[in-house]
C-alpha cells in the first residue's frame, strides 16, 4: 500500500520547537520530491517547503525561512520538518506530500495537528 504517515505534532508554547516526521512506504521514496503543506483554519492550504530526491535542492515559503528546516533520510524513507521559534499563526494541520516533480504532489499523508499556544 502506498502511504505517507506523519508523526510528531502536538501542543507547543510560542517560541518553542517541534519536529514532525513523515514515513513513506509502498513506493520508491528515493525518487520523489517531498513537500510540507499546512492547512490553517479559515485560510486553506499553504505550501511550506520542499526538498528534492537527494536533498540537494530545498526551498521554503518566506515566512518559514530561518525558522523551519526540511530534511530527509532516504535510508529510512522519512522526511522531516524541524520547526523553531514557533508562533501562534503556525497553528495548522501539517501534511507531507510526495511528487515525481517539484510541481506536483501524488501521495498525501493524513496530516498531524500542530498547535502553538500558551
Comma- or semicolon-separated keywords:
four-stranded antiparallel beta sheet; mainly beta; 11 strands; single chain; 118 residues; seven-stranded mixed beta sheet
What would your notes on this structure say?
The protein has about 120 residues and is mainly β. Helices cover about 0% and strands about 55% of the residues. The chain has no helices and eleven strands. It has strands at about 5, 10, 20-25, 35-40, 45-50, 60, 70-75, 80-85, 90-100, 105-110, 110-115. The strands form two sheets. Strands 2, 4, 5, 6, 9, 10 and 11 form a seven-stranded mixed beta sheet that branches. A four-stranded antiparallel beta sheet has the order 1-3-8-7, with no helix packed on it. A hairpin with a 4-residue loop joins strand 7 and strand 8 (about 80-85). The radius of gyration is 13 Å and the shape is globular. The termini are far apart.
Please provide the count of β strands.
11
Distance between the termini: 39 Å
Shape assignment: globular
Question: What is the helix fraction of residues, given as a range?
Answer: under 10%
Mean pLDDT comes to 96
**Class computed from helices, strands and strand pairing:** mainly beta
Number of helices: 0
Strand content: over 45%
Which regions contain 5 or more consecutive residues with pLDDT less than 50? none
- The value of Rg in angstroms is 13 Å
Task: Please provide the ordered H/E string of secondary-structure elements.
Answer: EEEEEEEEEEE
How many strands, what sense, and barrel or not for the largest sheet? 7 strands, mixed
Amino acid at each position: 500500500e502506498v502511504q505517507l504517515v506523519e508523526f510528531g505534532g502536538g501542543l507547543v508554547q510560542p517560541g518553542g520547537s517541534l519536529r514532525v516526521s513523515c514515513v513513506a512506504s509502498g513506493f520508491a521514496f528515493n525518487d520523489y520530491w517531498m513537500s510540507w503543506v499546512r492547512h490553517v483554519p479559515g485560510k486553506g492550504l499553504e505550501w511550506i517547503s520542499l526538498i528534492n530526491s537527494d536533498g540537494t535542492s530545498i526551498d521554503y515559503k518566506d515566512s518559514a525561512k530561518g525558522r523551519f528546516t526540511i530534511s530527509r533520510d532516504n535510508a529510512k524513507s522519512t522526511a522531516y520538518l524541524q520547526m523553531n521559534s514557533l508562533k501562534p499563526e503556525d497553528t495548522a494541520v501539517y501534511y507531507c506530500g510526495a511528487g515525481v516533480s517539484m510541481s506536483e504532489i501524488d501521495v498525501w499523508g493524513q496530516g498531524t495537528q500542530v498547535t502553538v499556544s500558551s
